Amino acid sequence: MNDEKDDSVIRERRFKIGANIDIGDLGLGEDYEEVPDPNSPTFDKNETVEEDEALGDVFDPFKEASGEEAGAISSDGTVTSAPE
User: Rounded to whole angstroms, how far apart are CA atoms 27 and 8?
Assistant: First the structure.
């Protein structure tokens, strides 16, 4: 029974010690400088981006609709081109 009480005290102390972590030097503030990832490929501004044709068109849910895409409904309720 005494060992069980000591274990809970030790666990509580370890938990409190872990809470005193200083995250000030992690670079999350306004002085953030981007550190290059050694595993990421570098991109030259003069390089052209190759489009993966096998992937095709990917739906972007955050793109604002232009009204001219397939299946777009006009303000009068008509559809200019049928959806795919």
Answer: 35
Q: DSSP code of 20?
A: -
Strand-pairing partners, residue 5, are none
Q: What is the DSSP string of 24-76?
A: GGGS-STT--PPPPTTSPP--TTSPPPP-TTT-----TTSPP-S-STTPBPTT
Total-model pTM: 0.25
pLDDT (tens digit, 0 to 9) for every residue of the chain, 84 residues total? 555 667 888 888 777 776 667 776 666 666 556 666 666 666 666 777 777 777 777 777 888 877 778 788 888 888 888 877
Amino acid occupying residue 17: I
